[in-house]
Design brief:
Elements (H helix, E strand, L loop, with lengths): L1 H21 L10 H11 L2 H7 L1 E4 L4 E4 L2 E4 L1 H10 L3 E3 L18 H17 L8 E5 L15 H6 L3 H17 L4 E6 L19 H16 L10 E7 L18 H8 L1 H8 L4 E4 L3 E2 L2 E2 L4 H11 L5 E3 L7 H4 L7 H11 L4 E2 L5 H9 L5 H17 L10 H7 L3 H14 L1 E5 L12 E5 L25 H8 L5 E5 L12 H10 L2 E7 L9 E2 L5 E2 L29 H10 L4 E6 L7 H6 L2 E4 L7 H9 L15
């Protein structure tokens, strides 16, 4: 019997060895990554190579009927005819994508959708190449039913990289279990122009703090192995100096010298690259007249030759075509594609920057074959290192259980608590006593779930988000009378009811006034092809949305908008002690309130557990220790 057993084992071993030997080298998991990349490149046509460098809009690629999801006709066509290699924002839901709580995907359906997309890509292509799926992950995976953490400006206010690494690990696990491979983030732009619309996405103005937070995010996202099933590739953005546009205009040109570039704007990216970041996104802007998406000095000399970056670069949405339409450095789309890839830009986020334009550039000999192979190889390398050729699928049952867990919510609450910055506390106005009998909670941000979540947030069930009003009500005894009055909107001046707020304050022993801003997108707002909001004046009789921050909402003033200042002054005039809680995404002019209000708490955009976190601080259950990462006027 032992001899038969030994013979059987030998036969099995030989069979396995033969099977591996008959497979193409790139399908042999025992081969080195580099050998697999080169073998696959040698088998690919030019069209297949170009297709691997196109990242299309993912939310258009699935169809949902009831509780069933499948690959869309548009997706199958893109795979069959364009040989695409990646999708972006497949699971994204927001007014721009037109995906809602009804039409979007919960975590279980999300996993089923990504499996369906992978199955078609693997089974219906000549070389069986799986997809890379990229998602927005700056303060939580931007998908329905995920955990929403404070935005980055609040994260950096914690000055706690270890906590932010834990947060990033959680975000990565939630994204990966649903089928994502790449998380766009962290944003490492220095926020030195407070009028700019995207301050909330940054870690503030200091390069050292940005570096520490960026490293924490990269380590949390990528972990020790991209094959773990719980980690994702980190895409740093936006390379570089995007946060100081002229006049605060998003995507505006940048004028800076080499010294400032290397002392301020580049160090956070360098630190994150040295921490192992596998991907980096170029910025829309130009620096001293040279667009970042066609800058060989940045993308090749600095990034690869000086820093040793081995991952792949990706454009921001539409920035390659922007070389023709915005920067006017290329006369045609093929010329733009050639400028970008020759400079060192590997992947096109949009699907219309490379594609047939890059193919034409190759055919016109504007791009050498080895340049194309170099870019494609960098993308394929990530697919091999993530183990996608062996298993591109995820488990929908796990997705249903491992997203938005109680532990993740507690972590979101902890990050929110640590992000709170106590700007003023005169005569120990805080903490408030839980024995207070009458508390007024006033203001446009006191009971608005989306105003406290920030930009790049998907729709969430209302029960998943705790507002400041709800947090206060949960904190105090049931016998305490909590009187709520909105008072006014963030921007709109036609719907104010300041008299109601004044009456509430007069009845109360303390008035908690919750003011600030909003990055809440709505379905009435129009959006550019890049996803940035188009800011327009409201038509006659139309109510303005609260959104005054978030991508595209650059500002000319840092004053409180709408009738918020009048509301605050009227409440202060009642003589009732006032505490101001600020929920916002950028620095605001606080001069008047700093002079007239005894207690000021800056909560930034505190995420879905923000209401509990604010109440924890106001009533003394947590001692606020956050520090400002950016100057406040």
């Amino acid at each position: 019997m032992p001899n038969y057993l030994a013979l059987g084992l030998c036969l099995l071993s030989a069979t396995a060895t033969y099977a591996q030997a008959t497979k193409p080298l790139y399908q042999n998991r025992q081969a080195t990554t580099e050998a697999r990349v080169q073998d696959l490149l040698a088998r690919m046509t030019v069209e297949e190579k170009v297709g691997q460098l196109s990242t299309l809009l993912g939310w258009e690629m699935y169809q949902k009927e009831g509780q069933k999801v499948s690959a869309s006709v548009a997706y199958k066509k893109a795979v069959d005819e364009r040989h695409i290699g990646a999708l972006w924002a497949t699971l994204r839901a927001d007014p721009w994508t037109k995906k809602t709580l009804l039409t979007g995907l919960n975590p279980k359906l999300a996993a089923e959708a990504t499996n369906a997309l992978q199955k078609y890509a693997v089974e219906h292509t000549r070389l069986h190449i799986p997809l890379l799926l990229a998602e927005e992950c700056p303060h939580g995976h931007m998908a329905i039913g995920t955990t929403v953490f404070p935005t980055s400006i609040g994260q950096s206010s914690t000055w706690d990289p270890a906590l932010i690494k834990r947060m990033a690990t959680t975000i990565a696990a939630e994204a990966r279990v649903q089928g994502a491979h790449i998380g766009y983030g962290p944003v490492l732009d220095l926020a030195r122009e407070p009028r700019w619309s995207r301050v909330e996405e940054t870690y503030g103005e200091d390069p050292v703090l940005n570096s520490q937070m960026g490293v924490a995010m990269v380590q949390g996202f990528q972990g020790n192995s991209l094959k773990s099933g719980a980690n994702i590739v980190s895409t740093l953005k936006h390379f570089t100096a995007y946060g100081v546009p002229e006049g605060g205009h998003n995507g505006g040109s940048i004028s800076t010298g080499q010294r400032e570039l290397f002392q301020s704007f580049l160090p956070p990216f360098r630190a994150a690259v040295k921490a192992g970041a596998q991907s980096i996104m170029t910025a829309y802007n130009s620096i001293d007249g040279v667009p970042c998406s066609a800058n060989p000095y940045l993308l090749t000399d600095v990034l690869r030759q000086q820093w040793g970056f081995l991952g792949f670069t990706v454009s921001d949405l539409g920035s390659i075509s922007g070389l023709v339409n915005n920067h006017h450095v290329a006369a045609t789309a093929p010329e733009a594609a050639a400028l970008a890839i020759n400079a060192g830009l590997d992947d096109d986020l949009s699907g219309y920057g490379y594609d047939k334009e890059l193919l034409a550039a190759v055919q016109q000999k504007l791009v050498a074959p080895e340049v194309l192979d170099r870019a494609v190889g960098r993308v394929l390398r990530v697919k091999f290192e993530m183990g996608l050729f062996e298993n591109p699928y995820v488990d929908p049952a796990k997705a249903a259980k491992q997203v938005h867990t109680p532990a993740n919510l507690e972590l979101a609450r902890q990050v929110a608590r640590e992000s709170m910055v106590l700007l003023k506390n005169e005569n120990n106005a805080l903490p408030l006593a839980k024995t207070l009998q009458r508390i007024a909670v006033i203001g446009p941000n006191a009971d608005n779930i989306y105003n406290q979540l920030g930009d790049y947030t998907a729709p969430q069930p209302e029960s998943n988000v705790v507002t400041v009003l709800e947090g206060i009500r949960a904190k105090v005894p049931a016998t305490t009378q909590v009187i709520y009055a909105k008072g006014c909107a963030i921007r709109d001046t036609a719907s104010a009811n300041i008299a109601e707020a004044v009456a509430a304050a007069r009845k109360a022993q303390v008035a908690i006034v919750v003011l600030g801003g909003s990055s809440a997108r709505d379905f009435k707002t129009e959006y550019q092809s890049t996803g940035a909001a188009t800011v327009t004046a409201a038509a006659g009789g139309q109510v303005l949305s609260d959104m005054e921050s978030g991508e595209g909402y650059d500002r000319a003033t840092l004053d409180l908008l709408g009738k918020q200042q009048q509301l605050l002054q009227a409440v202060v005039a009642t003589g009732t002690p006032v505490v101001v809680v600020l929920i916002k995404g950028r620095p605001l002019n606080l001069n008047w309130m700093a002079a007239h209000v005894p207690a000021l708490l800056d909560a930034w955009y505190p995420g879905q557990e923000g209401g509990h976190a604010v109440a924890d601080v106001l009533f003394g259950d947590y001692n606020p220790a956050g520090r400002l990462p950016i100057s406040v006027p």
